[in-house]
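Input chain follows. Return structure tokens only.
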Amino acid sequence: MVHLGNDWDARLADEFKKDYYLKLRAFLANEYRNQTVFPDMYDIFNALKYTSFENTRAVIIGQDPYHDDGQAHGLCFSVRRGVKIPPSLQNIYKELQSDVGFVPPAHGELTHWAKQGVLMLNAVLTVRAHRANSHRGCGWEAFTDRVISELNEKTTPVVFLLWGANARQKARVITNPIHRKLESVHPSPLSAHNGFFGCRHFSKCNEILLSTGQPPIDWQLPE
């Protein structure tokens, strides 16, 4: 049984009992047993563990976990300290620099954001090593739809940052007019120049939070 250690446990308890999830769990058990899969099985739900439902003020939605060795640890776009900063995250840092005067740290760990209420959620929570999107269509999309539908019920405004086609597909679940959606292409080197650079999503997110009586996100990461 999945144990998240916060209010997500009660909100998602029935989801973990549904047929599709039980099939997904069986698929993952086989994958972890016979393949190299990221992140570590104990890190799959770190986004929900770090950021409770109650504390969620902003959501960054990625595609699926990094698929190279030692990168993924359960928060979208984040890598642990000591791991080389991936190109997509380098581009996020570049946009932060131009948008809010961010000073890039020497690491790529984004837990500082998660602890402030930024849910760092991938649309798909696992991946086979060196095969991007390899667990797409195996059930995770339904699960992350449920997470977003729960957030859609919040009575305090949430800012959703949707980067790339996979993330933007989640916009359909966000129907509550009090929430805000900021959409852009993915920050990967293949697409960042087509609209991610210059989107100013970080300052816009904070402007929305402030306008709704919520504290802004401190985007600067500690060294």
